[in-house]
Design goal:
single chain, alpha/beta, two-stranded antiparallel ribbon, 11 helices
Amino acid sequence: MKATIVIPNLNGAGWLRDSIESVWAQTEQDFELIVVDNGSEDESLAIAREYVGRERYTLVENETNTGFSAAVNTGIRMAQGEYVVLFNNDAFAEPDWLAQLIAAADAEPRAFAVQSLMIRHFERDICDDAGDYVTVFGWACKRGDGRYWRRYTKPRRIFSACGGASLYRKSILDEIGLFDESFFAYFEDVDISWRANSLGYKNLYCPAAKCYHICGATTGAVRYNEFKSVQSGRNSILLPYKNMPLGMFILNFLPLAFGYLLKILVFSLRGFAKPYWQGAKEALRVIPTLQKPKFRWKNLPNYILIELWIIVDAFRYIGYRVGRFLKWK
């Protein structure tokens, strides 16, 4: 089987059916679909059950919300496909979306992840995500968010692929491990992409694979809310600590400290200082349990590339923020 598509669902009654139907409508039909329900309390579980008995379809029903990472890991462990494709329950694919992702992965044997062009569902000319930046300040952020998607029509290598609509090579997942469940939600996709970069694998952006996304439909967080603030406070600390070798962490300590102070200021101004600090405290409790990738001298060129990358991405991000402030699309 070529691909396994995994859709995690939590209370997605308003959009899950359309998401699933867009998957069944793919021109590439050599796939299976696994929906992992995370304790939904609305009609979306009943919608997911309607497809039970259909060929190439599996429904997993969790009793509680285990988090995004644990939910998709459940699907990945069951996957029979050469590739695993994660797809949000509030995303809707163009008919050739899967075929384009597979073609991009097939063309590059060192590709770990291939990211879709995610377009805002209700603003069809605006980009939602064209791959993720990671900066020397410890911030991870969406490339292209809020700008015209036609600016992002060239395939390229990216630092991180968004787990909301990306393909992953199963053999490399077996090698580097699955999504880190310590992250619960947010940045888990950046973490796994970073691990792949450290080993010399590539994460690619495929603009021909288009889908439309209702950003924040499940969490209720387009920009800020209490849940997202807790996750950001915790995971923005865990991400660089886990993935930076000690020397790199020391080298970047000052810009990281500056980045965290600035994030504290921003979340405070937005009225979410308390949940952000809650997340930061959780990070301190989680750090001793993290499984940091082992430092290997043979990966030194990859670490150097990553260091240069996060410096360059810091300038790219600053340029992006200036453009957004000036309302350039």
